[in-house]
Write a structure and sequence with these properties.
Blueprint (H helix, E strand, L loop, with lengths): L28 E4 L3 E5 L19 E5 L12 H25 L4 E9 L8 E7 H5 L2 H12 L21 E9 L3 H6 L5 H5 L1 E9 L10 H9 L15 H15 L9
Antiparallel strand pairs: 1-2, 2-3, 3-5, 4-5, 4-6, 6-7
Helix pairs in contact: 3-6
Length: 265
């Protein structure tokens, strides 16, 4: 082992995203499905006043139960695809909540870092101004930040027929804006892209290769600049007290409950 080389990644008992970890922050958990669960983010990027129509940050993590650094290393499609499908179903339900609560004024950005040497794959979900999405500002911001960081260029997905099997290590971002039918279609948990999103979505993939150092806060950094929340780029600078965390998790659960399919199954 080389000096300074990292040790092995934490196992489930020490993983912040595994329910088997005795120290997991249970008060942040807001919904539990069959394959994955939702939590509010610790140290959220937005504040409770960033989106007046919501009244809470709505920075949400979609986390599979399976302790894996990437879905694409689960070779069996019969194991991998149901996890991905339910993560997508939660995302569609979150879209529906935003469309209903914000009267279609909010879009959303969801990003993930999928690397075989990572710890536990998860998606970060964040509302964004639908006007900014429509104007192409969100997509442009990700591309410009990648260029400024001397990263490779974003590409179209390589596995559009089975996004759960997108190959290699990558950063993937999905930029969504609502359409007129978004609340009804997404609330129904429709699986087809045009039905579930009922709007317009752009998916960009940034290949993560060993020849450059990728900033794990890249997605948050881009959105912080867009939202003029630069002082909150580091989640540790945005940590709330337990009482505030619990209050905002409760506010989210209340807003989300009529879209939460896990309560009906």
């Amino acid at each position: 082992k080389q000096r300074g080389a990292p040790g092995p990644p934490p196992g489930p008992d020490n993983c912040f995203f595994c329910l088997s970890n005795p120290n997991i922050a249970t008060h942040l958990i807001t919904s539990i499905g069959n394959e994955c669960y939702l939590t509010t983010a610790r140290g959220p990027l937005p504040t409770s006043t960033s989106f007046p129509s919501l009244g809470f940050p709505s920075h949400i993590l979609i986390i599979p139960f399976t302790h894996t650094p990437a879905l694409n290393i689960i070779s069996e499609a019969s194991s991998r695809q149901p996890i991905y499908a339910e993560m997508q179903r939660y995302r569609a339900a979150l879209h529906a909540m935003l469309a209903a609560k914000a009267d279609n004024a909010l879009g959303a950005v969801t990003w993930e870092i999928s690397r075989s040497n990572g710890v536990h794959i998860h998606w970060q979900f964040l509302p964004a101004s639908a006007e900014m999405v429509e104007a192409g500002l969100v997509e442009a911001a990700f591309k410009v930040e990648a260029e400024n960081s001397q990263y490779p260029k974003f590409e179209a997905p390589a596995a559009p027929q089975d996004p759960s099997a997108e190959p290699g290590d990558y950063f993937r971002v999905r930029i969504w804006r609502p359409g007129p039918a978004a609340p009804e279609a997404a609330a129904a948990g429709a699986e087809k892209k045009e039905d579930a999103d009922a709007g317009k979505e752009t998916t960009l993939v940034l290949p993560l290769t060993p020849d450059f150092r990728f900033d794990l806060q890249f997605g948050r950094r881009v959105m912080a600049k867009l939202m003029q929340l630069d002082s909150r780029v580091n989640w540790k600078d945005a940590v709330q007290g337990p009482a505030e965390e619990e209050k905002e998790a409760g506010a989210f659960k209340e807003a989300f409950k009529r879209f939460d399919f896990s309560l009906e199954e």
